[in-house]
């Protein structure tokens, strides 16, 4: 993996992840407001999100001052770069489009909790299968607890709160999220920051190209009685939880352990659930709340288990 810029300090990486989690927590709320104000569908919304996000990154790259490089980075193999960009772009496309569809189907709170709760579980299983990472007893128990939380949430939440089709879409979204995380861990990132030449910008371009045809079939231009509100929401989605949040996330995830990242990203479902209940008037049954708590506790347990395994490896390593 090549790096064209100095390594980001871990402390700053943690701050970046916190800001990304808070910003992502508002994306679903903005989508819910778009659905209430227009007939724009989830595919078209995702398309405009990526087009707008790419435009913001291009503008930021053009305005960013050029820094002189004292060390010339070694070139990354073209095939490796194309695989990383393509896999990241497709993963983000599935992640965001399925998530917006889940919000439309079953509400912001439930869709976000299932997506971000199931994501770390799929990451842990995927890392075991593709990277050979051990789960350990604690990790296995955490995965089992997360699956139990999902069952309580989906089966006990009540039809008015949790719709099966929305839950399935949220799980598909979680699979896309896990794919992006595993690709980042296996292949790394290009280190180019949030500019147009980075993985983030190219992934947005891949997503926009993949979504153009289905978005056109769904309807690219929304029919609405309040075009200014819808336009404002689309701009917000493109700038804050897309261009800014993804650039911060990829930069932070490159220097912060995956376990720590998983715990920090719990900010997103918690903030989204608060927004859904307080501002959007969504209601959660006692079973849904219980499933949510169990799911998030399992994710925290999974992160703690990974941290213990990493500490044991460091202690066993020769000095």
TrEMBL record:
Keywords: Membrane, Transmembrane, Transmembrane helix. The chain crosses the membrane at residues 14-35, 47-63, 83-102, 108-129, 141-160, 166-184, 196-216, 228-251, 263-280, 286-305. It holds the Pfam family EamA. It is found in: Membrane. Its main location: membrane. Residues 12-154, 166-302 form the EamA domain. It is a multi-pass membrane protein. Belongs to the EamA transporter family. PANTHER family: EAMA DOMAIN-CONTAINING PROTEIN, INNER MEMBRANE TRANSPORTER. This is DMT family transporter.
């Amino acid at each position: 993996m090549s790096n064209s810029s100095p390594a980001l300090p871990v402390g700053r990486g943690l701050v970046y992840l916190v800001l990304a989690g808070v910003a992502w927590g508002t994306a679903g709320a903005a989508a819910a407001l778009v659905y209430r104000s227009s007939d724009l569908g989830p595919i078209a919304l995702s398309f405009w999100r990526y087009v707008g996000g790419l435009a913001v990154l291009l503008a930021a790259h053009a305005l960013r001052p050029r820094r002189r490089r004292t060390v010339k980075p070694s070139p990354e193999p073209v095939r490796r770069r194309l695989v990383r960009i393509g896999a990241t772009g497709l993963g983000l496309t599935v992640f965001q489009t399925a998530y917006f569809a889940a919000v439309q189907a079953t509400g912001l709170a439930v869709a976000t909790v299932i997506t971000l709760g199931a994501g770390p579980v799929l990451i842990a299983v995927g890392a075991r299968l593709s990277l050979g990472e051990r789960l350990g007893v604690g990790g296995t128990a955490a995965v089992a607890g997360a699956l139990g939380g999902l069952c309580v949430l989906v089966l006990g939440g009540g039809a008015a709160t949790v719709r099966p089709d929305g839950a399935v879409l949220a799980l598909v979204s979680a699979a896309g999220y896990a794919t992006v995380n595993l690709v980042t861990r296996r292949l790394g990132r290009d280190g180019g920051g949030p500019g147009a030449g980075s993985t983030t910008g190219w992934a947005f371009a891949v997503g926009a190209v993949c979504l153009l045809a289905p978005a056109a079939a769904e309807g690219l231009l929304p029919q609405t009685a309040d075009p200014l509100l819808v336009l404002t929401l689309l701009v917000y989605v493109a700038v804050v939880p897309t261009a800014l949040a993804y650039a911060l996330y990829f930069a932070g995830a490159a220097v912060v352990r995956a376990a720590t990242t998983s715990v920090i990203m719990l900010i997103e479902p918690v903030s989204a659930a608060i927004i859904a209940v307080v501002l959007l008037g969504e209601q959660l049954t006692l079973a849904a709340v219980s499933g949510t708590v169990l799911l998030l506790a399992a994710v925290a347990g999974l992160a703690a288990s990974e941290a213990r395994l990493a500490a044991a490896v460091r202690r066993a390593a020769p000095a």
